[in-house]
Amino acid sequence: LFGPVLGVMRADSLKHAIDLANGTPYGLTSGLQSLDQREHSHWLNYIEAGNLYIHRTITGAIVRRQPFGGTKASSFGNGSKAGGPNYLREFLRISQTSLPQEKHSISDKINALIFVLNRFQLSPQDLRVWTASIENYAYWWRRLNQTRDSSKIIGQDNFFRYFPRKMCLRITPSSSSLDVLRSCAAALTVGANLTLSSSEQFPLPTNIEDEAQFLNRVRAGNYPRIRLCQPSSHELKKAALESSSHVIDVPVLANGRFELLHYLREVSISTD
Length: 272
Description:
four-stranded mixed β-sheet
């Protein structure tokens, strides 16, 4: 209700209050009044909302200063915030015309994934794309993982952060092994909670479920965000529509500036 109505719930502790707030299906904005910096940190790490406010009202977001948009049922699709650095992506169809040149050393988690490469029949060209991709993912995550205040106004901090998402990667017989591996690498790079679902055995830990079982789980809302390495079927789009799930079937990119965004949610933090 957007009106002069205040609903009050009593909590035993900050943790309990966070549990109550996170227990709703929505997550647009949330606010905190507290003089304890430890409570600020705990709340910021565990509250589930798109715009977070400390010591101020929880309305009146300003373009660029507090890019606006929610999470869970307060968001649909890619989730790029209005007035934020990724909003133009909502209007683009991005394709890879050349391999990115920026690179950074990869993490131990990606190194562990490299050990399974010999289970796949990758060509020398595939291996070149793989190397360029994982090194560019590491480069961009190093940049995206920095909390920034672009406005720098006196009396108010305005930070923009990324948090990893919970995702499902659906593997089918037509899925490219290279793209599946790159999707896993992108998720591991940012720390996303990735579930692999496949209709047949796969050389990585995977939920084995046929198409009917998978679609039933999508309809039940068990997979709210699904990554594919090939175009989506009509049946999957219909099942996703019934549960408000988001299907990502755009090509896997070597450029981490765009590929990593599928596995991240954007959070604006404003503190007076």
